[in-house]
Specification:
Strands 7, 10, 11, 12, 13, 14, 15, 16, 17 and 20 form a ten-stranded mixed β-sheet that branches. The protein is an alpha/beta fold. It is globular and about 60 Å long. It has a domain of 184 residues: Dihydrodipicolinate Reductase, domain 2 (2-Layer Sandwich). Helix content is 27%, strand content 28%.
Length: 372
């Protein structure tokens, strides 16, 4: 079998992950080969024999890859992906795909124009546990769904927020970036929560804050009301006291279900403990199978439209407020917001925004909620 040629635009930073994944797939016998790298900066640790470009258009013209992975800042996604599609490639596009519905529609039009496809890098949509959960919801195992929540508490240090020129930025060169907790590290969890029902987004409300002088949120509660009235409450922080991965809970009239997306752990109503659902494949493997055998895409661009709708509402929201130093524990480059894990757990369970509940740092921040 002839190996599928793959090029990577955005070869440094997170692009290193894609380079490792490609090498692992090739070593495992998957018919795939890396044929080109492009980055505006000097490419680190470029593999021998793989051509390197600073201009992605030259790469597309000279190498003519069959698949292109786009791993660049979100505000560049539309132009780069459209160029790749028009060059005849299918695209694996890092999340978030784009930052508003107009760009989403433009990219959808480019798919139709070229006959190529875009798979979006929401790895959570590749979870076989999510497939089983959705089947349980459709089959009535939970009864009518009342509420969906996500709880995630991570820690990110000062170095994380200095990792690139667009880190922690709300805009770059006058264009939106939104490199905050919701649009970047917890985007997988947000997308997975939205995909439980695949219902249109009707309302978005957010209460968000930051614990350091950045432009975006590192801590947030996001409430999404879906068509039909079900609410999704996302409660996340990058200034956590203890680690919570991004646990998803679906509250139904007949019982609740819990999903741990990273390990594909699922507990359905009536089950005493979560069990691991096996069979996960990478999104790149799925894209390759789509090309060779017509296997349905796990994360097609069309499936991510609700996420883009949420981001568009967040772009219009007032910027996050900054809490005072006295609300924090600061050590070794980390800023921890005291009491944040407890507050976010209560928000997730109750479907409440932070400013609708008492919180230890309330005296250090302004009141009000940004509603969209």
């Amino acid at each position: 079998m002839t190996a599928t040629s793959v090029a990577l635009i955005g070869a440094n930073g997170h692009g290193m992950y894609h380079r490792r994944q490609l090498a692992e797939l090739a070593e495992a016998g998957v018919a795939v080969r890396l044929v080109g790298l492009a980055d505006t900066r000097e490419v680190q640790e470029a593999p021998a024999g793989v051509p390197v470009y600073t201009d992605h258009r030259a790469l597309l013209d000279e190498v003519k890859p069959q698949v292109v992975i786009v791993c660049t800042p979100p505000h560049t996604h539309l132009a780069l992906t459209r160029d790749a599609l028009r060059a005849g490639a299918d695209v694996l596009l890092e999340k978030p795909p784009v930052l508003d519905r107009a760009e989403h529609e433009a990219l959808t039009a480019a798919e139709a124009e070229t006959g190529r496809v875009v798979q979006v890098g929401f790895q959570a949509l590749a979870s076989p546990a999510l497939v089983r959960l959705r089947a349980a919801v459709v089959g009535g195992a939970l009864g009518a769904v009342r509420h969906i929540s996500v709880l995630g508490c991570w820690k990110r240090d000062d170095a994380y927020w200095a990792r690139s020129p667009w880190s922690g930025r709300r805009t770059v060169d006058g264009r939106p970036s939104l490199d905050g907790a919701l649009a970047n590290p917890f985007a997988h969890a947000v997308m997975q929560a939205l995909s439980v029902l695949d219902a249109p987004v009707e309302r978005v409300e957010v209460d968000w804050l930051r614990v350091r002088p950045i432009e975006v949120e590192d801590t947030a509660t996001l409430r999404i009301t879906l068509a039909g009235g079900v609410t999704v409450l996302v409660a996340v922080t990058l200034a956590g006291e203890g680690f919570v991965d991004g646990d998803l809970t679906v509250y139904g009239e007949r019982g609740d279900a819990e999903l741990g997306f990273r390990e594909d752990l699922l507990r359905l109503p009536g089950e005493a403990a979560a069990v691991q659902v096996t069979g996960r494949r990478t999104l790149l493997e799925n894209l390759l199978a789509h090309r060779s055998d017509g296997e349905p895409l796990l994360a097609p661009l069309s499936r991510t439209a609700p996420f883009t709708a949420v981001l568009e509402r967040l772009r219009a929201a007032p910027p996050p407020y900054q809490v005072a130093e006295e609300a924090l524990d600061v050590a070794d480059g980390h800023r921890t917001l005291r009491g944040v894990n407890t507050v976010l757990a209560r928000c997730a369970a109750r479907g409440a925004l932070m400013n609708e509940l008492s919180r230890p740092w309330s005296a250090t921040v302004p009141g009000g909620t940004a509603n969209g």
